[in-house]
Amino acid sequence: MSGLTEHVSESLLKRVKVSSTETPDGVVHTEVAGPLGVRLLGLKTWRGPGRKIHCDLSGPFKGSFADKVDAFLVVVNRLKIIAEKDGKNVYNLYNPAMPTPAAMRHLERKLRTMAEKIVFPGTCTLSVTPRCPCRCVHCSADRFVARDRRELTTEELLSVVEQAVDLGVSNVVFTGGEPLVRKDLPELIAHVDKTRAHAMIFTSGILLTEEKVAELAEAGLDSMNVSIDADRPEVHDELRRVPGAFQKAFEGARRARAAGILTGVSTYGCHETVQNGALEHLVQMARDEGFHEITIFDCVPTGKFLSRPDVIMGRKDIKRIRALAQKVNADPRPFGVVAQAEANGYDGGGCFGGFAQFYMTCYGDINPCDFNPITFGNVLEEPLEMVWRRMVSHPEYAPHRHSCRMQSVRYRAEYIEPITDAERLPVRIERLPGDGTLLDASAAPPARRRVEVKSDE
Q1: Adjacent-strand bridge partners of 17
Q2: DSSP 179
Q3: Which neighbouring-strand residues pair with 83?
Q4: What phi and psi, each to the nearest 5 degrees, are found at residue 342?
Q5: Counting Cβ atoms within 10 Å, is residue 379 exposed (0-12), middle (13-18) or buried (19+)?
Q6: For residues 90 and 82, what is the distance between their CA atoms, to the nearest angstrom?
Q7: Phi, psi angles (nearest 5°) of residue 102
Q8: In this structure, what is the dihedral angle of CA atoms 14, 121, 408, 203, given to the nearest 10 degrees?
Q9: Angle at 362 between CA 356 and CA 367, to 5 degrees
Q10: Cα torsion at 244, 249, 251, 255 (round to 10°)?
Q11: N or C: which end of the chain has fewer CB within 10 A?
Q12: In which region does residue 220 sit, left (phi positive, over 0), alpha (psi from -120 to 50) or beta (all else)?
């Protein structure tokens, strides 16, 4: 898109408006207009033979975008399609299907980033309650729970959803605790403008009754991830401290798929499960069961494990998870693997926290991600956009990091180790001594280091 900046001033970019509509035959028309509604660029996107995505450009600045769009289409049309929804391609459970108006919002974010010189989020993860029927030994949200604070009201959450989508978000994720304990969850899901964003939940699956699934489908839920911690029911139930949790989760997921909701498994890899084959077995189980996808998070020292950096996997474990993901994703069967070891690595998108996403506690605190115990503000005290701008202008978050901060030796020394075990979380960034300037020259391979990115570890 650099060609566009050669012809369009920053002042003009700041006044650019992007809008997308879809015709009954499934063609998405995206218009980029300048001041007074002057048409700058038009994109017509559709799915053609072989489920390939095509795009035609028009308007005075089509030449500036042609190469970028062609390169984008090459990448997209190489992606594995894990499902179809309403005649659209689903490449993963975290992004809107293509082509849709919601999927085209990445263009809006790019233009806004070019104009304002800061990034805008594509994903928000909103905790709606601390309540949960499980008592997981590894809970990442446990230390955020505060009995003397109240969870946001329906009206407050509806406002946050609107603010997040206006900020650029095209994937709104509801989590907890267990989000299904909130009776207003269908209302929150329905409030996500489906022409602009995709609605998703993370759930234990325990409460996915026929009635609840019907409510979620009616509200327009696009996808859900069901948390499964082990390939054996007894191990999963023990970790969740709920007898029968494994069976209930699988039964609930079947109901969700029958109702047309895309379903995935959410799990995590650790040294033991990588080495003994349990993780790979769970991947096979998820595929054979009919799930559309499995997400493998790294075992991150967070929540109850915040002071346990020993749980961080070594390079050999990371390499094996990456190889597993690549093998499954190369298989033509419609099932995908999203691995944090790959997505947040040097060949992926780096650390997403405070770059492509943010997390909100059920009390309104805005953190870089759900694993990060540091907050930059609260939506009950100031607008979401103000908190986001504070986050991405901080010395630690202004540069994009190559890998997960919460697994970084450097980041943990600056920001996590000063937090005591007795301290209430999340902690305000101003309370911590780090300024993002400590570097370790060995953190990134020199040949792959980008000049605008500080090293991570």
Answers
A1: 33
A2: G
A3: 90
A4: -95, -45
A5: buried
A6: 6
A7: -65, -40
A8: 180
A9: 35
A10: 150
A11: N
A12: left
Give, to the nearest 10 degrees, the angle between helix 245-258 and helix 233-240.
100
Question: What are the tens digits of pLDDT across the range 267-315?
Answer: 999 999 999 999 999 999 999 999 999 999 999 989 988 889 999 999 9
Task: Report angle CA 135, 125, 394 to the nearest 5 degrees.
Answer: 115
pLDDT in tens, 235-254: 999 999 999 999 999 999 99
Give the whole-angstrom CA distance, residue 171 versus residue 156.
19
Confidence band, pLDDT 50/70/90 cuts, at residue 68: confident
CA dist 261 and 220 (Å) reads 9
Contact of 246 with 236, CB cutoff 8 Å: yes
Q: 220 pLDDT band (50/70/90 cuts)? A: very high
Instruction: Residue count of the chain, please give it.
Output: 457
Spacing of C-alpha 352 from chain mean position:
8
Are β-strands 262-269 and 223-227 bridged in parallel, bridged antiparallel, or unpaired? parallel
Distance (Å, rounded) from C-alpha 96 to C-alpha 106? Answer: 11
SS (H, E, C) 228-284: CCCCCHHHHHHHHCCCCHHHHHHHHHHHHHHCCCEEEEEEEECHHHHHCCHHHHHHH
Q: Which pTM was predicted?
A: 0.91
